[in-house]
Amino acid sequence: MCLPTTGPQARQTASLIDLSSDAQLHRWAGLMGPSQADHLLATLSQTLDWQQPKITVYGRQHPVPRLTAWHGDTGLRYRYSGHTHTATGWPAGLLPAKAAIERVTGKTFNSVLANLYRNGDDCMGYHSDNEPELGHAPWVASYNLGACRELTFRPKGPGSQRQCLSVPLHHDDLLLMSPGVQACFEHALPRRRNRPDPRINLTFRYIVPDQNPDL
How far apart are CA 69 and CA 80, in angstroms? Predict the structure, then answer.
């Protein structure tokens, strides 16, 4: 069962999960508090420019099973799902979450990929956040709003296709993934048809300027 954990102490203290000696997950429960998180969920649901991109599989195009939006410092470029996106700045609604996440993690992020999972049928397959724009050692912060969903992990490599960890992310939870997570593991958000409520995930990243030729 997914039960939220909130409170001032929860917002300041991270729990640590070791996937391996080189890959750690840092988790904060109740990052912003219930009222701010509720307001942020409602605001972002209505104000972000949600799109449903298509991907090509075996020569045929298919819409991804979720809605997406990408934002960041003006001029940054990022390629995902076969499309290149150029940032035009930060919507005001995203700034409180960005500030809170940078404060508790001590990391700097200049972009965010937002995913809106409209219900439990929307999902994300196994992948790593290891695009060239993120450099060789990316820290990635994943912030959850709305329905509780499980983020699952499995090791990379031949014969390593079995899930090794499932982390339930509640409303207002933050998960910071160390660089080793992207190097050694893949993660996914499986379908959960018994979860009818929507979920927004904000995945904050730092795009390395040297990997962005326009900067």
Answer: 11
What six digits make up the tokens of 49? 């420019």
Return the CATH fold of 16-209.
Answer: Jelly Rolls (2.60.120)
- pTM comes to 0.89
Tens-digit pLDDT profile for residues 19-69: 999 999 999 999 999 999 999 999 999 999 999 988 777 778 888 999 999
The answer for residues whose C-beta is within 8 angstroms of residue 116's C-beta and 6 or more apart is 45, 48, 50, 66, 67, 68, 69, 122, 198, 199, 200
In 111-182 the beta strands, taken as DSSP E runs, fall at 111-117, 124-127, 140-146, 149-155, 165-169, 174-177
Residue 5's pLDDT band (boundaries 50, 70, 90)?
very low
Domain extents in the chain: 16-209
Cα 87 to chain centroid distance, Å, stands at 17
Q: What span, in angstroms and rounded, lies between the C-alpha atoms of 203 and 198?
A: 16
- CA end-to-end span of the chain: 46
